[in-house]
């Protein structure tokens, strides 16, 4: 009855305002009228709204809340924590000495969980590798604790629908359930960059060419050694048509830019424990013909092992974070190009296609008669862990969106910032992982074989990430920070795009949003030295010189992100 009365009152108020507008020269802004008409429970206000419940979004919200700001965290799906709690439990560390602040606190809490639960000298405490390897549910628990301790309001299943601006400032956003969210500062921590795009901020999708920024790694790769076809496999059926999982090609000249995106996959939590292992699920619409290319590869490589078809990296309690490995694996190469700019239906179709492909990949290996018996026996000894992702049938709820939109902000990070110009006066955190791109496409060769294209892996030393790279141009948006789809080229983003770095930049964004409110200024005009001082007080690592020399940059814990 109370809700009905309030709604009626709001409707009456709106009618009176509209009548007043009709009898005077004033006009009611349609969006203002819409807000007035909305049910009170459908409109929420806060100092800061964070869109994207990724690891970056959670730490951005935590950082702002610890500055005594009222924060709302919105997530488009039902899942919180992004890839960190979505299967990527073998953290892509780079140099551990480059990880500080609230990101380090997260990993310390993971380690403390295993020590508290199992004992300091337990196998679980050892296997968590000082907190950098963990089971998905443990990451979820740590994130939940952080959010609850800070009293942050969290709303799930709220995909972005609309953005309203006044001049160069966002004044409100609307999400899928019709709710309206108002704040003075917004943070886009989504993997897709939906808020920045709808706010009219410039962005790109795909790969720059070598000439665009003078990057030696940019554009189409001449030949990628990793995860490549070193045996000849024909990509054609008897009628001369391309098999499934092969794109038409041909490759553009080396160094050419394009709109294509590196491959996505699911990071599966697998186990060989008999008490936890589930049978491989058969996907809907399973068709073994989809895996003809895989079958031919197995003919050419009859001795191939399970670990050459995927990469199961151990995490505690006999589980794994299983990633892509080899020329045909869990990466669904070429199937995601329309995801970044796709509407909700397009993205859902691509998500489901990735799930069907991956389930079918393992189901084929476990059941098809063309699979060598030894390999098939090994595949059947593995399965999904039945105590993980129980709300989504033990399947990861998060697709690994390695790259989507990338903002074109006031400073663009390039390969030169990773390799040469590693120091920045406005640094808000460090990166240290390899410049790393997965394959982008799989095409036939002139010789009648098949080739994967797009992969590169180049080691780096720790480097600064400037505050400027988180900022849109002021004329486009003065109250938005972007810690995930930040301003970088494809090459630079290949190193930046790791979960610890997302957390580091999330913390910086949360504190920066607080300072924008404190100084009543655009996010582009905050006192950056004050931001850096506060981050240092929070144990952030801001200069490559702060990284201990005894911890050199090294390959990722997962082997290949």
Overall pLDDT: 93
Q: SS-based structural class?
A: alpha/beta
Q: Cα distance, first to last residue?
A: 54 Å
The amount of beta strand, in percent, is 5-15%
Shape: globular
- As laid out across the biggest beta sheet, the strand order is 4-3-2-8-21
The overall strand count is 21
Main sheet characteristics: 5 strands, parallel
The stretches of 5 or more residues where confidence is low (pLDDT under 50) are 1-39, 551-559
Portion of residues within helices: 25-40%
Helices, by number, come to: 15
In short:
This protein is an alpha/beta fold.
Summarize the helices and strands and which ones pair or pack.
Blueprint: H1 2-22, H2 30-37, E1 43-45, E2 48-51, H3 55-65, E3 71-74, H4 101-118, H5 123-127, H6 136-150, E4 153-155, E5 160-166, E6 169-175, E7 180-182, E8 185-188, H7 194-198, E9 203-204, H8 210-213, E10 270-271, H9 292-300, E11 310-315, E12 319-324, H10 344-367, H11 373-380, E13 383-384, E14 406-407, H12 415-419, E15 427-431, E16 435-437, E17 441-444, E18 450-453, E19 456-458, E20 463-466, E21 480-481, H13 490-496, H14 499-518, H15 528-537
Helix pairs in contact: 3-6, 3-14, 4-6, 4-14, 10-11, 14-15
């Amino acid at each position: 009855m109370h809700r009905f009365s309030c709604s009626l009152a709001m409707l009456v108020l709106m009618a009176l305002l509209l009548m007043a507008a009709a009898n005077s020269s004033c006009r009611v802004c349609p969006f203002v009228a819409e807000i007035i008409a909305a049910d009170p429970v459908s409109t929420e206000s806060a100092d800061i709204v964070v869109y994207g419940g990724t690891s970056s979004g959670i730490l951005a919200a935590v950082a702002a809340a610890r500055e005594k700001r009222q924060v709302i965290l919105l997530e488009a799906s039902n899942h919180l924590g992004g890839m960190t709690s979505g299967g990527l439990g073998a953290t892509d560390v780079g140099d551990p000495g480059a990880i500080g602040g609230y990101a380090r606190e997260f990993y310390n809490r993971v380690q403390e969980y295993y020590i508290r639960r199992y004992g300091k000298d337990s196998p679980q405490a050892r296997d968590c590798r000082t907190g950098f390897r963990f089971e998905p549910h443990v990451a979820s628990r740590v994130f939940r604790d952080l959010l609850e301790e800070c009293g942050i309001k969290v709303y799930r299943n709220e995909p972005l629908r609309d953005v309203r601006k006044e001049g160069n400032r966002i004044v409100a956003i609307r999400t899928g359930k019709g709710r309206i969210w108002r704040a003075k500062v917004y943070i886009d921590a989504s993997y897709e960059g939906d808020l920045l795009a709808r706010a009219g901020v410039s962005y790109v999708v795909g790969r720059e060419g070598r000439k665009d920024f003078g990057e030696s790694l940019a554009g189409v790769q001449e030949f990628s050694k990793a995860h490549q076809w070193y045996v000849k496999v024909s990509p054609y059926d008897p009628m001369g048509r391309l098999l499934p999982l092969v794109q038409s090609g041909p490759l553009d000249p080396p160094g050419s830019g394009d709109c294509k995106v590196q491959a996505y996959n699911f990071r599966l939590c697998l186990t060989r424990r008999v008490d936890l292992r589930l049978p491989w699920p058969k996907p809907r619409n399973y068709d073994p013909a989809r895996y003809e290319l895989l079958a031919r590869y197995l003919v050419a490589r009859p001795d191939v092992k399970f670990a050459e078809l995927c990469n199961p990296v151990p995490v505690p309690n006999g589980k794994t974070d299983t990633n892509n490995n080899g020329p045909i694996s869990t990466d669904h190469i070429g199937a995601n190009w329309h995801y970044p700019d796709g509407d909700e239906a397009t993205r859902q179709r691509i998500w489901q296609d990735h799930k069907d492909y991956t389930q079918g990949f393992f189901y084929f290996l476990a059941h098809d008669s063309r699979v060598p018996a030894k390999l098939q026996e090994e595949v059947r000894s593995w399965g999904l862990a039945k105590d993980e992702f129980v709300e989504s049938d033990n399947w990861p709820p998060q697709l690994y969106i390695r790259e989507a939109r990338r903002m074109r902000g006031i400073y663009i990070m390039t390969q030169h910032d990773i390799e040469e110009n590693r120091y920045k006066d406005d640094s808000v955190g460090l990166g240290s992982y390899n410049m790393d791109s997965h394959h982008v496409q799989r095409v036939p060769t002139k010789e009648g074989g098949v080739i994967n294209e797009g992969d590169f892996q180049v080691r780096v030393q720790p480097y600064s990430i400037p505050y400027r790279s988180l900022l849109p141009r002021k004329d486009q948006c003065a109250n938005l920070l972007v810690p995930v789809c930040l301003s970088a080229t494809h090459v630079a983003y290949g190193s930046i795009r790791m979960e610890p770095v997302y957390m580091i930049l999330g913390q910086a964004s949360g504190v920066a949003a607080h300072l924008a409110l404190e100084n009543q200024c655009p996010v582009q005009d905050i006192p950056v030295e004050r931001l850096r001082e506060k981050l240092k007080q929070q144990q952030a690592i801001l200069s490559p010189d702060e990284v201990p020399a005894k911890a050199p940059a090294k390959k990722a814990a997962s082997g290949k992100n």
